Amino acid sequence: MFKKLIFWEAIAAIVGTIIGAGVFVLPHTAVKAGLSTSLIWLFFLGLAITYIHLLFGEIVLRTKNEYRLPGYVGHYLGQPAKKFLLITNFLTFAISLLIYLILGAKFLSILFKGLNLLEFFWVLVLWLISTIVILFDNKLVGKVNFYLSFALIGLFIVLSIYCLPHIQNVNFNLPTASNSNWLIPYGIFFYALIGISAIPEAIQLAKGKISGKNIKKIILIGSLVPVAIYFLFILSTIGAVGARISQEAIISLSVVLGPNIAIIGALVGLLAVVTSYLIFGHYLKNSFIHDYRWPKWLVYVVIALCPILAYFFLSGKMDLITLISFIGALVSGFEGIMILFVARQAKKEGDREPEYKLPLPKPIFWFLAGCFVAGAISQIIIFVNN
Predict the structure, then answer these.
(1) pLDDT by residue (tens digit) across 142-162?
(2) Global pTM?
(3) Measuring CA to CA, which residue among 276, 288, 137 is closest to residue 193?
(4) Rounded CA gap, 375 and 5, in Å?
């Protein structure tokens, strides 16, 4: 019974991290880029990122010392690479938690609409509660995330079922997307599917308590469940609303399905944001402590203040989709490349026998590295042109 609980708690850590703010812009992205194009990106990136997650899991299991991604980069590729990765850590940290705060505040505003409070009030509430949980109780993060993640999956299914009676075939006859739009989903889907930060946390929960075969299964299930959830969510929302889908999806659904769906949708959104915020913040706290050896007081100050400062300085200056595309394609893509190079070195220099091994043939190595580089360049071009 205990082993089963650990198994599902570790899966929840991955699922809860992956299903976050990015999910709510997926239907709008699919309309803009074309449904078939977007679904191809979903399945291709879903498989590619699952492979990256499994590679990262093997890296963790091949190394005796406990690190997060920057620590593994420093251990296997050297300190210059580790220091450079600190830049991407801060970008990912500041912008991702900013996205979570903005969307979380919107969902809280919908849930407590009658109070007529400003968005900033809800930002402060979400920031304060999440920061306290992250900083002061490591075990609490895992327990809270465990229950919230399964509630999140259940509510996504309820939301999709709610859409079923309203689905019309005509809604899938979307306007033809221009050829220039086919790259748009890349960064957004990458951001929505990546869960690197959850892999060490999940392995830490499971290592020594369940078999190596099950650790691999945890990463595999945790990475693929979001792909299935996104597929269901995209088809059901577009089927119910069509091309009129809004950027955050929930508003459009409430117009078509009634005000009750806004409550369910806002609850789903809030759970998605909170689970991602908790796991990601916990991961970064451990990364700064274990990888960069920062004093705890400095780590606590950075973890606590960076998100709220990012809100003050960046909120309203960048479009939500632009932020998500940038983080997904450029920063997350770069981290994917680093994992490929670290995995290659870890297979040669690892200091313990891993619980599972994953093949990394040269064609797959260079194909994925080339895809991540090309994707990052394409998103920079799109960003500049816009």
Answers:
(1) 666 667 777 777 777 887 888
(2) 0.84
(3) 276
(4) 38
